[in-house]
Amino acid sequence: VQLGESGGGLVQTGGSLQLSCVDSGSRFGNYAMGWFRQALGKEREFVAALSWDGGSRAYADSVKGRFTISRDNAKNTLYLQMNNLQPDDTAVYYCNAVQSGDYSVPASGDWGRGTQVTVSS
Asked: Residue 3 in contact with residue 107, Cβ under 8 Å?
């Protein structure tokens, strides 16, 4: 997979954003995919993931009920709808393929440039 993230920006607390991740490769539909984020000075952490067909999803506890992950295999695109954003959501967001046995683990060590999300209080 060859990934490019977009859709980040600056929003106020309680606002919404939708992130997109486009795969320029040809095997996007074969992989479970996920979103990860890295805040300044912190380790990269799992946010959300879903199976190749979208039938199975997983979320970090910190985003459950606020974020929704989805995908469009025909467009080779992964989405993350983020609602009720909080300052703690401020981070660079990345997408990646994930391991089928554990969605919280990335399947590749290759990362894109990510997209910055900043939530002001």
From this structure: no
